[in-house]
Design brief:
The chain has 288 residues and is mainly alpha-helical. It has a single domain, classed as ABC transporter involved in vitamin B12 uptake, BtuC. 83% of the residues lie in helices and 0% in strands. It is built from twelve helices and no strands. Helix 10 crosses helix 11. The longest helix has 44 residues. It is globular.
């Protein structure tokens, strides 16, 4: 892996992966805690319409895609607040229309030569330096907004009614959260692709949820875990000639199931030996 760092595209890939891991660690924590994984999937797939717009009009990929994704995310957020009982169905429709719209625009693009698979499964090895600076800027903006509104986001995530009583503008904050999520998803699509973006958003926070004692610890742990998975995934893709995005997600998935196994073993260990400890305490008290 060290010798691979002599190539600029590998250095860019590593930086992009680490930035995506930090962004996913922060936003993925809110996705898991607020149980909006399906909404995140809707935004990710609707973002394909933005990709089609960017190529059709010749706009920069990130800027063109973020605009369309933000618009779609705001519609989905409004639907989840006003029609919760039908939200999953309507989000599914927007999900499908966004992808269809993007594919049709790509078909209509003059001189179309875009590799569809690179956006479905990621093209981290082709992330240009200019996009890295955009990722840094938008990542800093997301981090700053989370830091500013951390207490309110914390209250809204764990007890919405309590947040309202405290005077937290829950609706406004919810739209802000979904907007930040849309930006984060677009940034990560280049790294692991449209299909795998939800995995990078959810797997590290799901692993850390069992060990973190606060939302902040969960964000830090998720960011570090995602960074580790990215480094190992890139190393595997380089040494074994595998697709980078899929390798990162495969490493994340294996780590998740290992964590489940470890937790299961710990639960069995506690339930098996805790009663014995209680019996020992009782017997000692009787003897006294």
């Amino acid at each position: 892996m060290i010798e691979a760092m002599q190539f600029e595209f590998m250095r860019n890939a590593l930086i992009a992966g680490l930035l995506a891991s930090i962004i996913c660690g922060i936003m993925g924590t809110f996705v898991v805690v607020n149980r909006i994984v399906f909404l995140s999937g809707g935004i990710a797939h609707a973002a394909y319409g933005g990709i089609g717009l960017a190529f059709y009009f010749g706009w920069p990929f990130l800027l063109g895609t973020i605009g369309f994704s933000l618009a779609s995310a705001m519609v989905m957020a409004a639907i989840t607040l006003t029609a919760k009982h039908r939200a999953d169905s309507i989000i599914g429709v927007i999900w499908a229309l966004g992808m269809a719209f993007g594919i049709i625009l790509m078909d209509l693009t003059p001189g179309y030569n875009v590799d569809l698979m690179s956006y479905l499964f990621g093209s981290i090895l082709s992330v240009p330096r200019s996009d890295l600076w955009i990722m840094v800027g938008l990542g800093f903006l997301i981090t700053a907004l989370v830091a500013i509104y951390y207490q309110n986001l914390l209250a809204m995530s764990y007890d919405e009614e309590f947040a309202r009583i405290r005077g937290v503008p829950v609706k406004t904050l919810y739209f802000l959260l979904i907007g930040m999520l849309a930006v984060a998803i677009v940034l990560v699509i280049q790294v692991v692709g449209l299909i795998l973006v939800i995995a990078l958003l959810t797997i590290p926070p799901l692993i850390m949820e069992k060990y973190a004692k606060s939302l902040f610890q969960m964000m830090i742990g998720s960011s570090l875990a995602g960074s580790l998975f990215t480094i190992i995934g890139l190393w595997l893709s380089y040494t074994c000639n595998l697709t980078s995005g899929a390798s990162i997600i495969m490493v994340s998935g294996i780590a998740y199931f290992i964590s489940l196994l470890i937790n299961r073993i710990l639960i069995i260990f506690k339930t098996r030996y805790k009663p014995d400890a209680g019996k020992i305490e009782n017997s000692s008290s009787h003897s006294l």
